[in-house]
Amino acid sequence: MIKKKVLENIIQNKVPSIILTKLEEHGFKYLKSQKIFKKISDGIEYQLRLLTQQSTLEYIEESDEPRIYFSIAGSIKYIEYEKWYKKKFDEESRMNIGTNGIKVYIVPDISDFDSSSYYVPSKSQAFKSMVTKSLITGKEKAEPLNINEYIESILFKLLDELNSKSNPEVLFEKREFPLQYTFLMHFYGHNELANSQISKTHKYYLDKIDKEENPKRVIQMFEKFLNDVKKLNGLELENPFKQAIKIKSNLNESRLNFLPNSGYSENLRIDIRNVDLNQVLLNTNGEIILYINNSKLFILNSTGNLKSEITIPIQQGFNKLNWEIPLGYEKKHKVTYANNLLIFDNGTVIELKIPRQTKKSKHKQSSNFKDVKFIDNNIYVTYHKTLIKYSIEGEFVEQKEFEYVLEKMVPSKKWVISANRIFDFDGNLKHEYKVGHGNSQWKISNSEDSITFYGYSTKSQYYEFEGKSKTLWAHPTFKKGYKETLYSDTHHNFDLSTLTFSPDDSIMVGSGHHGKYVAWRRKSFERFELIPQDEVIALLKPSSMSIRKGDAIINVESKPEIVEIDNVKYLKNRSNSAGETFFIEEGEFFVFDIPSINLITVWNKDFQNIFYEKSNGSIEFHGQNQLTERNKDELIVYKRNGH
What is the pTM (predicted TM-score) of this model? Predict the structure, then answer.
């Protein structure tokens, strides 16, 4: 089989010389580094691009010739409009004005190939190639053209099409969707037309939201549209569908009643259908903080009344926030922190200004902090490769640049962690550890005397800061017969994916791929396979996979079961992965939440599964006395009975 890169190189080396003479007559130049033909005229950038991502080689018996297929597509960009849009809205317009790709082929010479052009594919590679070719072939709507035929019959039609799209009025009249190019009309001074389109767009969203059963996505688009209109001309349009949460009737459910006086009762039921709920924080002062839509905070009191709605500020030239941010509550100073925003209990709100990077980049600067800690009446933040120090009043104090990307901090030691390295706040390397390939996650013990690396490798690494090290196996694949008996059809994903220490650090509990539940006693590092009750095993979801037998494809189902190897019991389980583990009752019990099947399992310190209960969504514990249960429609807040 011929290497894909070889085909791409043949196209990029041959086609420009064939087509360039014709394009030069129209003012185009070929930019070899960008692999495009380009010209700029009257503030419009025209491009022709060779699309080689799906290039294939085919031998045609009828004509006795090999063919290399690729596509040619054109596009234009309104240069001044794009500059104006980015300045006005602090983002790219994402206005895509182009033509459909036309499939073309060239006939290569034998001299285009040498011995390094070929490789022997594995069965998997051959199968993927066959599937890809079949999918590409199935999409074809027209016969591919020889490159010379394309130049004679199509090329100049494509240029005419691009020229017509360079007229904004014509582009607007021929728009594919009714709401396209409204801001382009405003830029070119067609304000009456633009305002008419804005009114139509406003009505369109109102009608669509009113008809939608679950309008969350449409409401988000509507709010962005309203914000953009306000930035455009200061106009504030009506918004009767502002994104919000709703407090629902309390069903007074009681959960986790596995021991006397240890159950949790429903405190609040919140309708979240109209928002994207990113994170939840239950403060010790009774407040409920919801981080939604990668942008806003809803702060509720314990009875569900909305205290405030705050948009986390984004500095000019910075990217929007990610799905997850540092979110927490600091008791000493009575302050909730949400990334770069501080919200004090007395109502004061402070924004921590992110220092601008001195090195220029075509990409926007990140808005996301990695970690926030309050130490010695100062605020420390890890941000990319920088440790930033602020005063408690939010004033910038200083920053320290590191060679590596920084993650979280260890406040008591004034350490900062970067992958497998630990530095002090002055940048001195304190520890560097050898970890398994892909073990990008880590967990520090509660007493802060050890760190464990895990995440992808079959082996996880435990290190004491002053002392011994150990290898932890989520799956004991070293044991003879383990893989052959439990996982004979796979050879990967035997890693540890979650890890939690008990409050006194005496027990480590984790879960791994293929529905593995495991624990270790830290004193001896003896490994314990966690075996659920028979009733729980019956509730675990079987896994299935398709395999080929001859010409037939059959579906094989694997049900979870207990198997024995050398008188040791193991759970054979191919899915049903656990979420994070939580210790309760001062560490006497721990809870596995299995969100894929909405199941809660509770275990004692002897590693016996003593209780299970079906849930209505994923469970998250917030200290010993509060938990939340979340699904796509509701967030339910529970409080421990008697607290």
Answer: 0.79
Burial class of residue 155 (count of CB atoms within 10 Å of its CB; 0-12, 13-18, 19+): buried
Q: Taking the mean position of all CA atoms in its chain, how far away is CA 607?
A: 34
DSSP string, 178-211: TTTTHHHHHHTT-HHHHHHHHHHHHHHHHHHHHH
The Cβ of residue 253 has, within 10 Å, a number of other Cβ atoms equal to 13
The residue among 453, 450, 433, 432 whose CA lies nearest residue 441 is 453
CA distances from 371 to 278, 387, 388 (A): 17, 10, 10
* pLDDT score at 8: 85
Q: How do 327-330 and 335-338 pair as beta strands?
A: antiparallel
- SS3 call for 24: helix
The DSSP output letter for 365 is: B
Contact yes or no for 184/78 (Cβ under 8 A): yes
Cβ density class 567-587: b for 16+ within 10 Å, e for less:
eeebbbbbbbbbbbbbbbeeb
Distance, CA of 290 to CA of 303 (rounded, Å)? 14
Pairing of the two strands 102-106 and 145-146: parallel
For 177, the 3-state DSSP assignment is coil
The yes-or-no verdict on residue 138 having pLDDT over 50 is: no
High-pLDDT (> 70) share of the chain, %: 94
Using CA atoms in the order 79, 84, 85, 89, what is the torsion angle rounded to 10 degrees?
150
Would you give the distance in Å from CA 479 to the centre of its chain? 36
Alpha-helical runs (H) found in 410-539: 482-486, 534-539
Distance CA 386, CA 357 (A): 10
Q: How far apart are CA 305 and CA 516, in angstroms?
A: 42
Rounded CA-CA distance 278/292 in Å is 5
The model's pLDDT over 55-95, given as tens digits with 9 standing for 90+, comes to: 778 888 888 889 999 899 999 999 999 999 999 988 888 88
581: its two tokens? 């583990």
pLDDT tens for each residue of 498-547: 999 999 999 999 998 888 999 999 999 999 999 999 999 999 998 877 77
What is the greatest pairwise CA distance in the chain? 87
- Rg for the chain, CA atoms, rounded: 30
Closest C-alpha among 270, 326, 323, 318 to residue 298: 270
Give the pLDDT score at 242: 76
Task: Please give, one letter per residue, the 3-state secondary structure of 205-234.
Answer: HHHHHHHCCCCHHHHHHHHHHHHHHHHHHC
**DSSP-based helix, strand, coil % in the chain, nearest 5:** 20, 40, 40
Q: Which tokens go with 146?
A: 């020889």
Give every CB contact of residue 75 below 8 A, 6+ residues apart in sequence: 46, 47, 49, 96, 97, 98, 99, 162
Q: Which two tokens stand for residue 162?
A: 């691009």
Q: How far is CA 281 from the centre of its chain?
A: 21
Joined together, the tokens standing for residue 569 give 């019991």
SS (H, E, C) 371-435: EEEEECCEEEEEECCEEEEEECCCCEEEEEECCCCCCCEEHHHCEEEECCEEEECCCCEEEECCC
Decide: helix, strand or coil at residue 14: helix
Write the pLDDT tens digit of every residue in 176-220: 887 789 999 999 999 999 999 999 999 999 999 888 888 888 988
